[in-house]
User: Fold this.
Amino acid sequence: MKKNKLGELINNNKSIIVPGGGTALELRLAELAGFEAGYVSGYATAAAAYGVPDVGLIALNEIETNVSAIRGATSFPLIVDCDTGYGDIPNVMRTVQKLETLGVSAIQLEDQKWPKKCGHMDGKIIEPIEVAVEKIKAAVHTRRTNEFKIIARTDARSPHGFKEAIKRLEAYHEAGADILFMDAIESEDEMKSQISELPGVHMVNMSETGKTPLMPAKKLEDIGYQVILFPSSMIRILTKQLSMFLSDLRELGDSSSWLDKMASLEETNHALGLDEINRTVNKIRS
Assistant:
């Protein structure tokens, strides 16, 4: 799959499951597992790449550095969480320019005030709808090609209610957003209402133990979602499993009980692309 063909995937009248990660290894493994696209999660980037919570601590240059590494290790379409666009209209324009140059397929912009928080945290502050609409218009105006998709996310559901969130997504759609995303939507009935009330392509995320009920992708597809994110599953599994391993290692001083739970050296090197590197080197030397 070519890097910029997200539009083809979402126009095929079927949903796509998109796992999220914050490192090149996570997204590379997702591609090797056969997923058609990957999501560079702001939450997972903050956690896995920088070891901090998702409370507005990550800046554009840090996202740019991380996405560059991920892009270099993968070839499938990437959706990148760009938080609020890192500022006002000029900042959003620069964000679009930087990310489109890196070869990603879409960016996600949200309507929180900076410093933002993870969408499933309490205490979010939402910026005026006029400001958010201007940012979407700026992103659409700045992109070089329509193949670069703009995802508009509203965080208004939790602090202001479902009707306000719908109102905002409608405005963002009219401003030119390609994909609509209501974060922290709270019920299946709300999901069905969102799809029936708003035209366009819709995205949903399954943030385990968050505010949105966890559902299988097939059910979400039947409701009408075309892009189904699992944005932070990998970093959560990593956090728990590594913590368990380190606890055992600290207590026992022995890793042998974990051998069946870890990749071998050969398996790890294969996942990292060493086989391909060796084949190329041998071809050059032959």
User: Anything to note?
Assistant: The longest helix spans residues 233-252. The chain has a mean pLDDT of 95. The beta strands are 16-21, 38-40, 78-81, 106-110, 149-154, 179-182, 201-205, 227-230. The radius of gyration is 20 Å.
